[in-house]
Records
---
Amino acid sequence: MARASPQAASGSKRCFPPVVDAHTRLLLLGSLPGERSLAEARYYAHPRNHFWPLVGQIIEQDFVGMDYPRRLAALIEAGIGLWDVVGSAVRPGSLDASIREPQANDLVALVDRLPQLAAVGFNGGKSASIGRAALAGRLGLALVPLPSSSPAYTLPFEAKKKEWLKLKPFLAAR
């Protein structure tokens, strides 16, 4: 079993660095890593989170059994970037509804460094509410709200998959 990180135990949490490169065409933004992710120092570490299976559907890649560094490399190879809208916050537990005192990440600065970016997908309602406000008015950039990949969001996988597959066209070359 994973041990809680010091930041997770204190209730004060910080996001991980962005996973992007100059060829990123699709940026996926979560809210803030949950307890399991913080404890394991990796995005979407909870085994019931649908993130990796959903992204696997988009890029036709099976992430089961793939180690974390290879997962990140597969995202980059596919033109997908990953980050969070909240840089730091107080949050007991992992639920977005418990986020207090959020300090937003500088999404505009990141987006400005990604010359091939075509779309931003927001993983869940909290991500969408913060991220869409920050990136509103960015010409030529599609802002796509998505159902949360979290196991706390009980929409069936097939329904989530239908929405997440709408991201696939943004990965096509310009």
---
Amino acid sequence: MKAAYSFTKLVVSDLDAMARYYREVYGLTELQRVKSEIDGSPMDEIILGIDGEHGGLILLNWIGRAAPSGEVILGFTTPDIASLFGRAESAGGTVREAPMERPEAGGLKVGFITDPEGHLAEVVEMVAP
């Protein structure tokens, strides 16, 4: 089964200022705000889109820690998150947070893995209602 590249999370220091920038410069609109955590670290996000549609850009702010310059989190969707995580581990990846249903994300299954060089990816499986 293939995964689909779906979104990019840009790690920022000032969430509201950067959301304003992407609204003013690119015409993106705020679709949703999420408070959650990744691998035990609390974070806030703003999901941006165009004309009310998902646009693939999510701004993320780590709560209580500085944002490294240029940090991004790649986002993939898959119909079978368990298989993808198995393939990632077999290929040298590391599970940072096992997939689990996230009420704050509309009940989606979400998990986090790093590639062999440590780059973080968020993997999402759409859960049938």
---
Amino acid sequence: MRGLSSHDVLALWESGVPLHPLDRGLLALGAADPSTAGSVADWPLGRRNRALLDLHASWFGPRLQAWTSCPSCGDKVEFELDARELASARPDDQPEDRVTIGDQTFRLPTSRDVAVVVARNAPACAATDLLDRCRVDGPAPDQWAGELLETVEQGLASADPLAETRLALSCPSCAREWDDAFDAAGFLWAELESRARRVLWEVHTLASAYGWSESESLALGDARRAMYLEIVRA
């Protein structure tokens, strides 16, 4: 997994801006390891999420800081996670490719499957659409009854635990407790965007002080550029 220079940060950020959030994560994984670019969309979600967490730790460090609003009182709730701990919270061996529940067999959902379901823009039937797409053997159910749907979802979650990580959150103001989904791709992109904005401000500062172009500023390297910025700000 190769490192990320300031030039890489800007190029990757610019390429990802027009993309769907789901595709931004795949773009980052492909940039880190070009040999996976053609296959990452077909990885099981747990494998993708583990790779995104490892990538965050490699590029930006393992610390994940974020905040959300309490659903009861609206106050800001801050929390901190460790990417490496999340990535190692489940067994590292590859999950089974197939899950058989009753007389039906399902493959593990992938990013490509999620993208197809999202494109249909039908949230009410998103879960059943995903299962229909992933069913590879057995009769199609006449109706996805609540109990059957829950059983299949639990079976897939047990087979690929990192496909979805739920965070237990608590509001210090009103003591409300709730859980929310953790978005590994969203965290990575937020960090990348923050880094890109910082680099652009550095380029702007040096251009204003010395008249250097973007390419000239980035060619300095991080340490020399930081020293020039320190001189300008002094």
---
Amino acid sequence: MQRSLYVIALLLMFAGTIFVLSAEAPEERTIISDDGRLRLVGQFLQSDEVSIFTVAPLVYQLYPGDKIMTIPATATVNYEGLISDEAAPRLRLSYFDNAFSMWRPVYTTIDPASHTATVEIDRFAKWALIEVSDVARPNFDAEIEALIVAAPEEAVGYQIEVGFSDPPGDLVILSGMGKSGGCDDQYKTGSSTQMTSKGKIFSDHLEYQIVAVWQLADGCPERQSIE
């Protein structure tokens, strides 16, 4: 009798585990923005209340915001009637990086025939389809070094990004110009403070900005000096 009860208990536990796992198993869902232009297809948990709010034309807030996706999803934006065919090759879907207060472009596939931009995304955030122009890429080594030298006393790590705006306004991160250090050369999450340096360079309309996010002492396993 006791053995039978033990077997029944194990079966119930097993069935309960299967139920919980199946209830949280990701399933493919398609989410469409309220303006009908952004289509998001991905594997989402049933508990994920995914929605897309149109902030402005081709600017969207994906909810739940500021959360990494369990599995990357495919986002497709239809820009027909809003962006010219000439500008289309320069389009990049970008998310707003709150740490640096700048847009961070990601690799985007443009289909001129269907007037769509497609990208694989890995986070819920504010996303926008923006035109990223080819701009001058000055050498900012001196300015970056000056920021590092002026690091807060308790800083043990840092990440620096360079952005630009043309005309002045929202800033876009220039890929390949960032720098990080400390924490065994890996930027890590934790307490941080931010210092910024910005200035107009080379013209009266093109503005570059250097943003440093500093990792404080509790952000690394042990205190290290910045070199």
